[in-house]
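ok trying this again, last paste got cut off
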Amino acid sequence: MFKTNVGGIDRVLRIVVGLALIALTLTGVVGVWGWIGLVLLATGLMSSCPLYSVIGLNTCPMKGSQS
């Protein structure tokens, strides 16, 4: 459905930061803006970021490249 454009380190960071923001929001440490963690978590789990597609960014390494 979506093109994979989020690479390994980017993906892990999105998932970790997303979960942290959600946890901080649920505990009341941060305000409503912390729910942005849901977007980070979703894009990390799907390995696809719509914003990256719009601006032409891709952090996923090329697979099967041959010289």
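PB: full thing came through this time. The mean pLDDT is 90.
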